Amino acid sequence: MNWRVxxxxxxxxxxxxxxxxxxxxxxxxxxxxxxxxxxxxxxxVEALTYLRDDPSLQFHxxxxxxxxxxxxxxxxxxxxxxxLSMTKNRRIRVKIQTDEDTAVASVAGVFxxxxxxxxxxxxxxxxxxxxxxxxxRLLTDYGFxxxxxxxxxxxxxxxxxxxxxxxxxxxxxxxxxxxxRNWDFLSPWEGAEYAKPGQGYPYKLPGxxxxxxxA
Length: 215
Known about the structure:
There is one protein chain. This protein is an alpha/beta fold and about 220 residues long. It is about 20% helix and about 25% strand. It is elongated, with a radius of gyration of 27 Å.
C-alpha cells in the first residue's frame, strides 16, 4: 500500500469517527501515517467509550496514556490516549487539553489499564483525574515536590534525598548547586589531577624510563 492510499484510508477513518461521535469527537488530522482526533475534555469518557464500543471501530485496547506540556498556552497540558483495534488492525490517537487546576475525568472505568497510566501522568505532569480510584504518585517518592516532566521543572530538581546515618532515616534537603562542584577529586565537573611525565611527581609513570624522564 502506497502512502497516498494509506493516507486516504486514514482520512476516511477520521471522517467516520467525527461523523459518528455525536459531538464527543471534535476534529481530526492525519500526519506521519497516523490519525489523531481531538475531543472536548469534558466528554473524554464518552469519546473513548464510543471508540471502544462502536462495531465498525472496535478500539478495544488502550495502549498508552501520556501527557505533553505547552506552558505558553492557557490550557498547557495535552492528555493523549493511544488506542488499538486488534480486529480492524488500526490505531488512533485521541487528544484533549486541560490546565493545571481543571481535573480530567478518569477513563479507568472504560479501560481499567488507565489506572496506572493516569497515576503516571499525575505524577510527571500534575494532571488531575477526577473519579480515579487511587490517584497517588507512581514513579517518584510520596514526599517528592513538583512534577519532573513539566517544562519549567529544574534539571536538578528542588530537593535531594539521602540517608542520614545519625538520624537513621531518609531526609530531604534543598538542592545546593555549589555542592555539586565541590565533590572529591574524582568529580566529573573538575576532573582529576593526573600525573604527567616530567612534572616532578615522586613516582614514575609507565614508560617514563623509555622516554628518558626522571622522577
